[in-house]
Design a protein that fits this description.
heterodimer; A: alpha/beta; Glutaconate Coenzyme A-transferase; 9-stranded mixed beta sheet; 8 helices; 13 strands; globular; B: alpha/beta; 10-stranded mixed beta sheet; 3-stranded antiparallel beta sheet; 11 helices
Chain lengths: 249, 291
C-alpha cells in the first residue's frame, strides 16, 4: 500500500478522531497529544458539535475562521462541572493505559502489588467513574506485551467482565487506538478484537505485541489514511511543529 | 468585625499531630504552599492528608509528616508523576486511601452536608472497592433497585486553601478560571484557614472580580493569612503561573536522600520570607545560566 509521505502519527491522529464520530454535542476528553489532535480534528471536520476543553476550565469553540481564531472561549467548565458531565454521561474520554486486558480493564494506578507497588503511577484518577458513566476509549502509543497483559495489577477503568458483574448499565468501551492498530470489543463476549492495522503493520506484529489472544477476523482491513483536507489541517493548523511525531518516538 | 489575620506559623500552631487535613487546589495548581511550608517548620506529624494531590502531598511525605493520603491522584501536571509520592508509596512509607476523583468530591460533599454517605456509581466494578475494604455499596430503595457505591463522608479536622484575595474577616476571592473544590474543603472541615496573595479591605473585593468570584465567606473561615507567592511553585493565575523551572528543581530533590537534604537546606530551612528570598536567588542563578 502506498501511503505517500503520511506518517504513522498522522494515521493515529485520524484513528483517534474517528473514535468521536457520531457523538454529537458531548464533551470530548482526550489524554495525550495525539488523542488531543484527533479530537480537535474531529471537531473541525466530521464532528463539529463536539465540546472541547483547554485542559483548564475553558471550553474552546470550533474555529470557523483562520487559524488565529483558535482559542475562542465558548464556555466555562471547571472541575466541579466536569464531574457532573461525567455523571450525566455527556462525555466520551480517551484515556491512556499502563496496562489493558482483553476485556478492557485498564490500569493507570500502579504496577505490582498495590500495598507496596514496584512502580507508583498516577492513581486511579477518574477512570472508575468514567467507565461506569460514559463511553471511554484508550490510546496506547507503544503497543507491547507490557501494556496488553493477561491481567492488570489494579483495575481502574473497568472492562466488560467487571461491568457485567457490577451491573454497570452505562458502561461502553469504544476503541483502543495504538501505534500499530485499532482494536474494539465488538465480539460476542466483548473480548478485544483487532479492527484494523495501520498501513505498513502486519497482523502478526500486532499479535506478537499483545499478551493475550486477540480475536482476529478473517479479513483485517487497513486503518484509513488521512484525507488531503485532514492532512492539511493536522500539518498546517493543529500541529505545525510536528510534536505528534515525538509521541511515537 | 474581628480580624482573623494570622501568620503561616500561627496556622500551623492551630493544628495538631494526627489530624485529618484537607488541602485545596488541584494537582500543581493554587495549592496553599506557604501553609504547607509552615507545617514543615512545625513539629506536626502523623497527618492524614485529603487532597487532589500535588506537591503539597509530596513535600509533606518527603518530610515524613504523613501517615495516610486520601486521594485519587498525586501529580505535578507538567511532570505527571509526583516523585516524592512515588518514593513514599514504593517504600511502603505511607498508607493510602485511593479513591476515584468523583468519589473524593462526593465524600467532601457528604461531609459538608453532614450526611453519613452519598451514593455514586464511581467505584463499582473497580479495584477501588478491593483496596478499600471498608467501602460499602447501597441498594436504591426505589423501584430501580440499583446498587451504588456508598461514599462515606470525608470529615476534616481542618482545611487549608489559597486564594487570590481575601478581606481580614475571611471573605475570600478566586480570580482564576477554576474554583477547584476549595469551598467544599472548608465546608467539610471543623476549622478552615485561608491564605491569599493579598488582604484587601472588604469594599475592594468587587473591584477585582465579579460577585461570583467570592468563593468563601467569613462564616466558613477561621483564619486568614496574607502570603504573597503563597502558592509558589504551583500556579495562582492571574497573579502568577506555575514556576516550571523551580518545580523541576523540586522534582530533582527526589533523586536521592542527599538531593532532598540539599533542597531542604536551600529552601526549607528558614521562614516563609527566607523561602521567597531563596526562590529569588534560584531565579537569578537560572537566568544567569541561560544568559
Amino acid at each position: 500500500m502506498n501511503t505517500g509521505d503520511v506518517t504513522r502519527a498522522e494515521v493515529c491522529v485520524v484513528a483517534c478522531a474517528e473514535a468521536w464520530r457520531g457523538d454529537g454535542a458531548i464533551l470530548a476528553s482526550p489524554t495525550g497529544l495525539i488523542p488531543g489532535l484527533g479530537a480537535r480534528l474531529a471537531q473541525l471536520t466530521f464532528a463539529p458539535e463536539l465540546l472541547l476543553s483547554d485542559g483548564e476550565a475553558y471550553l474552546l469553540a470550533r474555529p470557523d475562521g483562520p487559524a488565529q481564531d483558535a482559542g475562542v472561549v465558548e464556555g466555562w467548565l471547571p472541575y466541579r462541572s466536569v464531574f457532573t458531565v461525567v455523571a450525566a454521561g455527556r462525555r466520551h474520554a480517551m484515556m491512556g493505559a499502563a496496562q489493558l486486558d482483553r476485556y478492557g480493564n485498564q490500569n493507570i494506578s500502579c504496577i505490582g502489588d498495590w500495598a507496596r507497588p514496584a512502580a507508583q503511577l498516577l492513581g486511579v484518577r477518574g477512570a472508575p467513574g468514567n467507565t461506569v458513566n460514559h463511553p471511554v476509549s484508550y490510546w496506547v502509543p507503544r503497543h507491547s506485551r507490557r501494556v496488553f497483559v493477561e491481567a492488570v495489577d489494579m483495575v481502574c477503568g473497568i472492562g466488560y467482565d467487571r461491568a457485567a458483574q457490577a451491573g454497570a448499565r452505562f458502561h461502553e468501551l469504544r476503541v483502543v487506538v495504538s501505534n500499530l492498530a485499532v482494536l474494539d470489543f465488538l465480539t460476542p463476549d466483548h473480548t478485544m478484537r483487532l479492527r484494523s492495522v495501520h498501513p505498513g503493520v502486519t497482523v502478526p506484529e500486532v499479535v506478537a505485541g499483545t499478551g493475550f489472544p486477540l480475536v482476529i477476523p478473517d479479513d483485517v482491513p487497513v486503518t484509513r489514511l488521512p484525507t488531503p483536507q485532514e492532512l492539511a489541517l493536522i500539518r498546517g493548523r493543529l500541529d505545525p511543529g510536528a510534536r505528534r511525531e515525538k509521541e511515537l518516538a | 468585625m474581628t480580624s482573623k489575620v494570622l501568620s503561616p506559623d500561627d496556622v500551623a500552631g492551630e493544628l495538631r499531630s494526627g489530624m485529618t487535613i484537607g488541602i485545596g487546589g488541584w494537582g500543581s495548581r493554587r495549592k496553599p504552599m506557604a501553609l504547607v511550608r509552615a507545617i514543615l517548620r512545625s513539629g506536626l506529624t502523623d497527618l492524614t492528608i485529603v487532597s487532589y494531590g500535588g506537591p503539597d502531598v509530596g513535600l509533606l511525605m518527603a518530610a515524613g509528616r504523613v501517615r495516610r493520603v486520601v486521594c485519587g491522584f498525586v501529580t505535578l501536571d507538567t511532570i505527571p508523576l509526583e516523585p516524592h509520592f512515588r518514593l513514599g508509596r514504593q517504600a511502603g512509607a505511607v498508607e493510602l486511601t485511593e479513591l476515584d476523583e468523583g468519589m473524593l468530591h462526593w465524600g467532601l460533599l457528604a461531609a459538608a452536608h453532614r450526611l453519613p454517605f452519598l451514593p455514586i456509581r464511581a467505584g463499582l466494578g473497580s479495584d477501588v472497592l478491593r483496596v478499600n475494604p471498608g467501602l460499602r455499596t447501597v441498594r436504591s430503595p426505589y423501584a430501580d433497585g440499583e446498587e451504588l457505591t456508598a461514599m462515606p463522608a470525608l470529615r476534616l479536622d481542618a482545611a487549608l486553601i489559597h486564594l487570590n484575595r481575601a478581606d481580614p474577616h475571611g471573605n475570600g476571592q478566586y480570580l482564576g478560571p477554576d474554583p477547584y473544590f476549595d469551598d467544599l474543603f472548608c465546608q467539610a472541615a471543623d476549622r478552615s484557614f485561608l491564605s491569599c496573595e493579598r488582604i484587601v479591605p472588604t469594599p475592594d473585593l468587587l473591584a477585582a472580580g465579579p460577585v461570583q468570584s467570592l468563593l468563601v465567606n467569613r462564616a466558613m473561615i477561621d483564619g486568614v493569612v496574607e502570603a504573597p507567592g503563597g502558592a509558589h511553585f504551583t500556579s495562582c493565575v492571574p497573579d502568577y503561573a506555575r514556576d516550571e523551572a523551580f518545580q523541576a528543581e523540586y522534582a530533582r530533590s527526589a533523586q536521592s536522600p542527599q538531593a532532598w537534604e540539599q533542597f531542604r537546606a536551600d529552601y526549607l530551612s528558614g521562614d516563609e520570607a527566607a523561602y521567597q528570598e531563596a526562590v529569588r536567588r534560584f531565579r537569578t542563578r537560572t537566568a544567569a545560566a541561560r544568559a
